[in-house]
Design goal:
Distance between the termini: 43 Å
Shape: globular
Largest sheet: none
Radius of gyration: 22 Å
Oligomer: single chain
Number of strands: 0
Strand content: under 5%
Structural class: mainly alpha
Length: about 290
């Protein structure tokens, strides 16, 4: 019976991952747009307050309301509203042969890939942790890292709307030591932020340039809050290695300029996922070799 319960949980989490992966596609696309609109509104408000009493006062652009839930999804090419039957995760993409039913333009392969990756990771988390609070926590952690990865790739931004709640969620979840003892989680959050903050300032003092953004500090702080300070060295090492390999490959294969920034958040997120599932084993192996 326990095996049957676990099997049911795995299937349920995998299906939920497909559906939630579709929602993550919405978050990845819309959250940066919502942030941009908010910045424009704030700039217009500031300009209006600072403008002289005579003359035209800058106004924020008038745009249709946008949230994560409304309006319904539309084709980015022709604006045709996507019907529910055309929005079934992965299946609709296959039936439509990767093209919009209205205008025939191709649909990005990233949409079904995100749905598939989310489903696989959700199912694996259910298998790994079973019917425990850790499964719910792992699903939350995975979803946040997938969204942050894609948003950082697209915009080189790691939104506070995701990173800051992720820090607090990790600390709250570890009140009973779900993934790490609470003292380790608190130290992990502080050490994660300060580690990259220190590197940022050392690099800036040495070169006069900014080597990374503040969002990277907050993301590593969130990973530390979820997994504890003991796994931070593994996360930093893995993310640095992957980032270096990808960066060199981009420069060699695509003539990616050295001055063109490469987002570091996706590598931190990938390392965080590896540490979530296998971090303790990696630590034990490393310490055993040492």
């Amino acid at each position: 019976m326990p095996y049957l319960d676990t099997a049911t949980l795995i299937v349920a989490c995998t299906i939920f991952g497909l559906v939630f992966g579709s929602f993550l596609n919405v978050v990845i696309h819309r959250l940066p747009l919502m942030m941009e609109r908010d910045w424009q509104a704030q700039c217009a408000e500031f300009a209006a307050q600072s403008a002289p009493s005579v003359g035209a006062v800058p106004q924020a652009p008038s745009l249709a309301p946008l949230s994560l839930l409304a309006p319904r999804s539309r084709c980015p090419h022709c604006g045709r509203q996507i019907r529910a039957v055309e929005n079934i995760p992965i299946l609709s993409y296959l039936l439509l042969k990767g093209r919009c039913k209205g205008c025939g333009q191709s649909i990005s392969l990233r949409y079904p890939l995100i749905e598939a990756v989310t489903a696989l990771l959700f199912g694996y988390a259910a298998w790994r942790y079973g019917t425990t609070l850790a499964t719910l926590g792992a699903l939350t952690f995975i979803a946040a890292l997938i969204a942050l990865t894609c948003i950082d790739f697209d915009t080189q931004l790691l939104p506070d709307d995701i990173t800051l709640p992720l820090i607090w969620a990790g600390l709250l979840l570890n009140l009973n030591g779900t993934f790490a003892p609470l003292p380790s989680a608190v130290i992990g959050a502080a050490a994660g932020y300060l580690a990259l903050w220190s590197i940022y300032w050392l690099f800036k003092l040495a070169t006069g340039k900014e080597g990374m953004g503040y969002g990277d500090f907050k993301l590593l702080a969130a990973i530390g809050a979820w997994l504890g300070w003991q796994l931070l060295p593994v996360v930093i090492l893995l993310s640095s290695l992957v980032g270096a390999v990808v960066g060199i490959a981009l420069m060699v294969l695509t003539r990616h300029g050295r001055d063109v920034p490469i987002p570091f958040g996706p590598y931190l997120a990938a390392a965080g996922l590896i540490a979530l599932f296998w971090g303790k084993q990696i630590n034990q192996t490393y310490l055993g070799v040492m």
